[in-house]
Design a protein that fits this description.
Layout (H helix, E strand, L loop, with lengths): L6 E3 L37 E3 L14 E6 L14 H10 L4 E3 L5 E3 L2 E8 L2 E6 L13 H12 L8 H7 E8 L2 E6 L6 H6 L6 H7 L13 E7 L3 E6 L18 E6 L3 H9 L5 E2 L4 H8 L4 E6 L4 E6 L9 H10 L2 H8 L5 E2 L22 H11 L4 E8 L4 H13 L3 E8 L1 H9 L5 E6 L6 H8 L13 H11 L4 H18 L2 E6 L2 E6 L2 E2 L1 E4 L3 E3 L4 E2 L3
Parallel strand pairs: 3-12, 3-13, 17-18, 17-19
Antiparallel strand pairs: 1-6, 2-23, 4-5, 6-7, 7-9, 8-9, 10-11, 11-12, 13-21, 14-21, 15-19, 15-20, 16-20, 22-25, 23-24
Amino acid sequence: MNQQPARSSNRRLGRRHFVQLTGLGLGSAAILNACGGGSSSPATATGAAGSPSTKASDVVLGGNLQYGITRDVTTLDPHLGVFGEEVTAYTGLYQRSLTYSDDGQLIPSLAQKFEYPDNTTVLMTYRTGVKFQDGTAFAADAVKANFDRYLDPATGTSGATSLNKKLAKVEVVGANQVKFTLTHPDATVLATIGGIAMISPTAIQKYGKDLARNVAGTGPFQLKEWLPDDHLTMERFTDFWNSAEAPGRVPRLDAVTFKPIVEPSVMLANLKTKSIDIMEAVQPVDYEGLKSASGVQAIQQKPSASIRMYINVHKAPTDDLRVREAISMGIDRDSIGKIIYFGLGQAASSIFPPTSWMYPQDRAIPKQDIAGAKAKLSAAGVSNLSLDMVLPASQPYQSVAQVVQASLADVGIKVNVKQLESSQFLEALKAHEGNLALDAIGDRADPDGFFSGNYETDSAFNFAGFNDPAFDKLLADALLLTDPNKRRPLYQQAEQMLLDQVPTVFLYNPPGLYATLDVVQEFKVNPLAGGIYEVAWLKKS
């Protein structure tokens, strides 16, 4: 990589310059995604409920927004959470150095600007006058305390191993300035360091591992109460530093309550009876009806996520490549689209979703090949296989698992399904439980985000146990480059290694479907950050 001249920015920044914070996979819509390339169009459309208000007199202040989510959060510690529901909750409670705008531009948040004195140094200048919800003043030493905690192996953050390899030093160089010294030039590190949520250093010292229930961020809302599997309520933080961000005040709501509702039909009933104002993960079978329903706004995102099935390469019989090939050949991906998604979205042919600049436009969708799959099993000398699959106990995983079961039954493979709650599923992934694991990964604007969190040898969620030094080297080499055209062939080689060795079957790219009541105004669905409710408000019905 050539030496870069010193430069600084406090402007909106294009997607091609940044990358998703790795380690926030598992279907999450993590805050910091980035890096586009070539002349590709923006990665994903953003839906919005209501029209942006231009006058304070238009806005109704107050109210409690009822937000339906498909599974409960497992922790309110933003350094440990990985699920999309958690990221959506963190949007209200915590903030990061940088964030994303609706149109995929990286913009300042707690950091006012950043500079590159050279290609292994990032200098962040932070805002003044910001308070944490426990009254602690936000300053550069708070940033340093958060990085010390995040990078400490004892904390258990999924991204610590990767980031420790990238950062040589984090130093406070002024009351509101922090210098990050890199171990080597890295195309993705800015968004990675910009994506660490800031927790009060007082709370870090006082509560330690009990931070999950003692929230103290700088966000527009503060925690009121959390009753697991029932509700999580956050109330307006009256000392929020950016209260003049929009007409009226910010936040405009008095409170937001998240309600975990696992069963889609129950979620839909709650929306129709106005027990909730926002419904995430609308089922495709219900979407068309909601589009024409009175008092409801339906929101659709372009396919930007990927449903995957990991295959354990160290557990018999899936330690045999021929068995893994048979599994991939035996699955009817088209049936997932027809049966579950009613034609919305598309079957997967790649590790990349259609919105990625790396997506192979001309690659054919793999078709079910029953005869070919049986031939692979015969060559492996196995028959009447019985495989164990773990998956989250929620949709769409339950329905996708049924299609996979039926498909593989056609080739003589029985799949035993084990549904797990969120925290149990994470532990099952880490323990490499079973032969198969069904999961999804949210949008990643940089190719590295699709690979490193799940396939690098030391990745926290490498369920498949994939271990290939040549693969790891390809990813490491790609991070040293900034030209997308030079990075592209390295990621193409890395993807081909996965296609050849089959530690994963890429199944489907579903659309993101939401619905809100008409009273919800200025609620936004950002494909890189999930539901955004900072300036949302409820009009009188």
